[in-house]
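Box S1 | Example of a co-folding query
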Amino acid sequence: MRTLAIHGGTPVRAGRPLPSALEASGRTIGPEEEAAVLRVLRSGMLSSVWGTEVAALTEEFAALIGARYAVACSSGTAAVHLAVAAVDPEPGDEIIVPPISDMGSVTPIIAQNAVPVFADVEPGTGNLDPDAVAALIGPRTRAVVAVHLFGKPAPVARLRELTDRAGILLIEDCAQAYLAPVRPGGPLAGAVGQLGCFSLQQYKHITTGDGGLVTTDDPELALRLRRFADKGWPRETGERAYLSFALNYRMTELVGAVAREQLRKLPAVVARRRAGAAAFAGGVAGLPGLGLPPDDGDHVYWYFPLLVDGLDEAGLRRYAAALTAEGVPALGGYLARPLYAEPVLRQPLTYGSSGYPLRGRAEYPDGLCPVAEDLVYRRLVVVPWNENYSEDDVDDIVAAVTKVHTALVAS
Ligand SMILES: Cc1ncc(COP(=O)(O)O)c(C=O)c1O
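Box S1 (continued) | Returned holo structure for pyridoxal-5'-phosphate
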């Protein structure tokens, strides 16, 4: 067996880094985006309050996702904040969330004085388990945030049935899942819940560095989203008034113009990611003790998650470190710990020393979501995926996973 690079062997890929979302090699920024930026700069109008780019972006985005309205904002976290603010919880109300996501799915709930309640996830995907959600819906629950983790749609049809029955709202966090059909030929992620949140952060399928969008079919929710992103100002009336508590989360015209160009490239980005992922999956299928993500033609592969059998926490981290040393950057567990184990929630560190609204209301002990903990601590290894991986790149990733897996798991 070939010696692993972490043990001093020759890496599968040495001196030829894979395309990365942190560099031009792994992004689709080109002359179109350059022209868009110049177009805005030369117009002299950089604000979306009076400009045309963000207005056009929201129309184009809503049409692409299949929603009536889209509202632009400054980040994915801001998008979730807009959505939670549109839900308008009473202080101390509860919103159900999964424990495997970016913290941007969760802290907006606390910003609106509501309490995040963590539901466990499905073992094969890390997406919310509808049965776990059903068991947690109570008199104070106002919404569920379903994250489409790594680009695999969460079971939002079932979640929507549950939330409708309970008379509460479903927010989809689609930051990692652009153009993902929730079932073959069905609606896209972001068009099933009442609110769909997207991120344009550097690592996402398309990027403006930072930026966000929220979709909805409901004119009343759309108005609340717009007002919350714009200081409660009713622009449509022409009156200077501040009608509700709100912040300034507006997207600039520069960001909007770049986002429009990125949007045009999105279908090809998703198709290339899916093609590369299919080739990779074919190359590693059959390695004993390696689970691959279920794909019913719906996965859009933000990251490629691997499910590894038989490791403890140290072994999982070592597996990821070994892949990284072979030239394939990987993360063991995706997160260091489930979100509820982070200091902000557990201590909690919120408003001054009050711990509001969590202290005395929410307990976030170890063991809260055992399936999520098993994934983060013992089973999940993620490989960032990219539309610019060539066939050779994918072959190298197959070779690296085969080498590491054979040495550490299946030898
Ligand atoms: C699932 C998910 N939700 C929310 C966010 C927050 O988005 P942003 O970083 O744009 O604030 C991210 C990514 O960063 C994410 O992956």
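The domain at 31-262 is CATH 3.40.640.10 (Aspartate Aminotransferase; domain 2). Residues 75-77, 101-102, 104-105, 147, 173, 175-176, 199, 201, 210, 212 surround pyridoxal-5'-phosphate (CB under 6 Å).
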